[in-house]
């Protein structure tokens, strides 16, 4: 009777391992977001430059990540770069590199958008009050810019967490891989395990991403008024 | 020439209307006779636009009743579609459909609601467009027209439904001064043809010229009701006098 | 660096076939998700009791979970309940399930952008609620949501890259196999990138052109 097989997801050992895998997932996303944000802020600031060369390189970079799917980038680094440079990179490292680059390109866009949306007269009224350039940025512009960036950043974080599910395809032991291992090893005891395990993983992703997207929506609403 | 002997088209009995907790209409009684032109005047917030919007059901009333001929507005199964067909409305912001051409805007109601024959509706539409001088613009999009042109088209669109009453909600308030006249002349023309109308406006000269009766509202109630020449030269109530003074320099 | 042109030439037919599969699945998924999205947003607009809560739950569930997990569930999980489907069917259902909620969100913001007075204007000439939706709201909502809709289309096309996980020979999976078999890593990856450019860029241009053509609502009144 397959309904009793729901117990496969309640085996402590399985749950433990799944959560370990989830940790790997979130860890990759988290590290990538941090690195990506730092790089992204630099890139975003560089987009306000007048240099045509810089803008062109930036443009190519952005479009490269917009057109080429993330999985393909993972393959490019996992198979391509490793072969070309003759080095051995683990799936985790490749994931972090690719996701950081992806994050940086999107963060760059978010930063640029936030900076451009700041009302110009803020700068003028700041100057009129006697604030020098640095104080102006620190007290007036940066807090506002950060505010405008947060919904986009949270949205990016959510998408990144979902996309890390792909790293199983380059051999990383993430939550999906562990799920597959559990299903394999439970073949006899719980033949319908794949239904329950994938269902559980589905909900695990949901309980991570849904709160994030709710927070982002609420912040956006609060700050748009 | 009193039109008070003509049959009553619209009977408004002691209507009340609230927005959240604020009472906007505090008991309005009014009769509209066939062929009459009523102009409603009053300061901002007096409820004149709300009253107008109650007349074609865009706003629902919480007390009293409105009767169009024999149809009551407060019954469970009021035929709103019929009311919308028979009572046309023109808005302050024209509200033409931006994704349709002028002629498509005008024919949408006759073809899809009244299910009329296309050739017949088209003929009427073109005749009306000709009368307002915009037949050559029938294939233009609203964004290609000026405010005054759009408003005249909006009037034609409402007229093409063959309504028995026309409602005008501050239709010149959004227009540049030089375009106000072309729109008001269309409305004057309609009055001469005997169309029953209720007009909310700030244009005093126009009000005097077009109205059979002036309804002056303040604070959700009708303060004064008189003939135009009486109202403008000799207002009876203090509030009316105060209101008219605003327009004198 | 020596490029193995022979390999490239012999692989081209394989890539052509894989691209065809990719595009076919993507378009099926896109069309279905547009339909699902439109239906969902209309249901939400009319606030149909009970069904609208179901729709909202669907949207949140599909937007907050990865496509890979959804497809694994469809392909490996459901058969245990007796519901076995081919890879292609799973792929299309997966894409439509995820895409539908993205499209619904895009349509919803488009519908919200149509002003109340436009709707009143439609009501005032006697249009029924359904007619208002059909003649006044949807055309204008479509125009406003077009940028989001086209971004979603490109997104769905890119998501086909993961279908190799359920053994579909799309262009990405083909590349992985070729690398495994012939070790021509550079050529294979280069071909892959070029194929994606060929699939996505023209599509993107067509969508931009469509966006411009339906911008009428922006100028509005």
Structure description:
The complex is a heterotrimer of chains A (225), B (249) and C (221). Chain A is an all-alpha fold and 225 residues long. In chain A, 78% of the residues lie in helices and 0% in strands. Chain A has one domain (2-224): MetI-like fold, CATH 1.10.3720. The model of chain A has no long low-confidence stretch (mean pLDDT 84). Chain B is built from nine helices and ten strands. A six-stranded mixed β-sheet of chain B has the order 6-7-8-3-9-10, sandwiched between helices. In chain B, strand 4 and strand 5 (71-72) form a beta hairpin. Chain C has nine helices and no strands. In chain C, helix 1 runs antiparallel to helix 6 (129-159) and helix 6 packs antiparallel against helix 8 (185-213). The chains are: A mainly alpha (225), B alpha/beta (249), C mainly alpha (221). Chains in contact: A-C, B-C. Chain B binds chain C through residues 56, 58, 81, 84-85, 88-89, 91, 93-99, 108-109, 112-114, 141-143, 150, 157-158, 161, and chain C through 117-118, 120-128, 131, 135-136, 139-140, 143, 216-217, 219-221.
């Amino acid at each position: 009777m397959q309904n009793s097989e729901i117990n496969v997801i309640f085996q402590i050992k399985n749950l433990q391992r799944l959560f370990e895998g989830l940790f790997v997932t979130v860890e990759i996303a988290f590290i990538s977001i941090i690195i990506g944000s730092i790089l992204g802020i630099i890139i975003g600031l560089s987009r306000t430059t007048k240099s045509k060369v810089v803008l062109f390189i930036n443009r190519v970079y952005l479009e490269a990540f917009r057109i080429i799917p993330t999985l393909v980038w993972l393959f490019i680094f996992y198979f391509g770069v490793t072969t070309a440079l003759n080095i051995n990179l683990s799936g985790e490292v490749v994931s972090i590199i690719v996701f950081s680059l992806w994050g940086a390109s999107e963060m760059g866009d978010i930063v640029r958008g936030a900076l451009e949306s700041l009302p110009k007269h803020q700068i003028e009224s700041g100057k009129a009050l006697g604030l020098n350039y640095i104080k102006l940025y620190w007290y007036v512009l940066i807090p506002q810019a950060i505010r405008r960036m947060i919904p986009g950043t949270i949205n990016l974080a959510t998408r990144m967490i979902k996309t890390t599910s792909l790293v199983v395809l380059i051999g990383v032991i993430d939550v999906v891989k562990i799920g597959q291992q559990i299903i394999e090893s439970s073949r006899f005891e719980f033949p319908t395990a794949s239904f329950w395990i994938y269902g559980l993983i589905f909900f695990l992703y949901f309980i991570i991403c849904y709160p994030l997207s709710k927070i982002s929506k609420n912040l956006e609403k609060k700050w748009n008024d | 020439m009193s039109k008070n002997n003509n049959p009553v088209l619209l009977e408004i009995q002691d209507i009340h209307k609230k927005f959240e907790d604020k009472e906007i209409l505090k008991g309005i009684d009014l009769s509209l006779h066939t062929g009459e032109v009523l102009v409603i005047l009053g300061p901002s917030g007096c409820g004149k636009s709300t009253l107008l919007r109650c007349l074609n059901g865009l706003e629902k009333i919480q007390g009293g009743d409105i009767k169009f001929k024999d149809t009551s507005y407060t019954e469970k199964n009021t035929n709103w579609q019929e009311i919308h067909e028979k009572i046309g409305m023109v808005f302050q912001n024209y509200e033409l459909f931006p994704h349709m051409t002028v002629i498509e805007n005008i024919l949408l109601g006759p073809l899809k609601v009244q299910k009329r024959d296309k050739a017949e509706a088209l003929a009427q539409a073109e005749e009306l467009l000709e009368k307002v001088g915009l037949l050559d613009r029938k294939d233009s999009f609203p964004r290609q027209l000026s405010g005054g042109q759009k408003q005249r088209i909006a009037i034609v669109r409402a007229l093409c439904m063959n309504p028995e009453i026309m409602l005008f909600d501050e239709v010149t308030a959004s227009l540049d001064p030089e375009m106000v006249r072309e729109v008001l002349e269309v409305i004057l023309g309609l009055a001469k043809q005997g169309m029953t109308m209720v007009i909310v406006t700030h244009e005093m000269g126009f009000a005097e010229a077009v109205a059979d009766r002036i309804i002056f509202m303040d604070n959700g109630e009708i303060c004064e009701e008189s003939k135009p020449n009486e109202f403008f030269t000799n207002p009876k109530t203090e509030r009316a006098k105060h209101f008219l003074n605003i327009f004198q320099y | 660096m020596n490029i193995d042109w022979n390999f490239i030439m012999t692989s081209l037919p394989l890539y052509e076939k894989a691209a065809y599969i990719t595009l076919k699945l993507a378009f099926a998924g896109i069309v279905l998700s547009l339909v699902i999205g439109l239906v969902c947003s209309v249901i939400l607009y009319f606030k149909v009791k009970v069904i609208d809560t179901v729709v909202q739950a669907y949207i949140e569930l599909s937007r907050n979970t990865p496509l890979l997990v959804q497809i694994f569930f469809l392909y490996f999980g459901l058969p245990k309940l007796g519901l076995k489907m081919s890879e292609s069917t799973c792929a299309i259902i997966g894409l439509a399930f995820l895409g539908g909620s993205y499209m619904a969100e895009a349509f919803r913001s488009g519908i919200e952008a149509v002003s109340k007075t436009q709707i009143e204007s439609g009501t005032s000439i006697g249009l029924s609620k359904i007619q208002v939706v059909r003649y006044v709201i949807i055309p204008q909502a479509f125009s406003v949501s077009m940028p989001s809709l086209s971004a979603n289309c490109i997104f769905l096309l890119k998501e086909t890259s993961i279908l190799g996980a359920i053994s579909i020979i799309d262009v990405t999976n083909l590349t992985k196999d070729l690398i495994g078999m012939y070790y021509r890593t550079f050529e294979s990856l280069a071909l892959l990138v070029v194929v994606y450019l060929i699939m996505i860029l023209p599509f993107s241009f067509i969508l931009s052109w469509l966006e411009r053509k339906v911008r009428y609502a922006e100028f509005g009144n």
